[in-house]
Write the structure tokens for this entry.
Amino acid sequence: MWRAVEKRDASFDGRFVVAVRTTGIYCRPSCPSRHPKRENVTFYPTPEAAEAVGYRACLRCRPRERDTPQLAWVKKACEHIRRNQVEKITLDDLAAEVGVSATHLQRTFKQVIGLTPRQYQEACRVERLKQRLKQGEPVTKAVYAVGYGSTSWLYKDAKAKLGMTPGAYRRAGEGMKIRYRVVDSPLGRLLVARTSHGVCHLSLGDGDAAQEEALRSEYPAAEITREEGKSDHWTLEVLDYLAGRVTQLGDIPIDVVGTDFQRRVWRELQAIPRGSIRSYEEVARSIGEPTAARAVSRACATNPVSLIIPCHRVVRKSGSLGGYRWGIDRKKRLLESEGVPHD
Ligand SMILES: [Zn+2]
């Protein structure tokens, strides 16, 4: 307790008060007034205890009030950091926000919280990232969503902070060689990307740029090459499927990495036969997670290989189509082509 008083450590505020015999005043441990001498000091667990033996509250640190002015603006700074989830906040911005000097803020914040404002912001961000990963969001997407400008952060110190598995790194595509082509199909532009092991990304869209961007943001660390000219047989097979010349895509190998949950959902989707639909709730039940319909819906939305993993066959319980990463109209047309009645 004496060490806390010597260091004016605000993290001990509220845990005890320090009473000074020579003045008859009691203070918070962090009181900025002149230091009392150790031999004149007595500690009490609460203001009430100090007052019961005749001490009066210090007018400067106001030990009876919950928050000192300092604690109040440190809290304000924390709140500001938590509210600004995406932008990086500089120390100067933060100082202006709470109305104190940057040096004062830096020092006091560290005293009270135990972290600098920058470290605190980083800790909040890592916390949000963990939450998103827990919900099954792809690593790359989550990294950007919480405000990191690039996934290079992943390679630097994510392991220390997140305890990430090699699979998580793999999801960013490190060490992967990806080739892709974009061709015309009955449902618009079709992008099929593949590694030597299988198809790793498949998208439908209207413009190559957006689809290429989706591919690159899914595998930011991969070596990605666009191919032109004669199609590979996997792309041809998908084209045949979209044209109705073949009815199954089951033989195309896929090369994707997901969380355990995503993989369970995706496996389940691959078991839905052509011409059938399931609700998100039904899929959730059949993987033994009856309350996870929303997470199932997210796993569908993050399916990297549409069609091959037929997430278009999952709809809302109400019968309405729900969402589709490549446009609700395409989902509708896919289901129509399979003869599925729907609203
Ligand atoms: Zn005081």
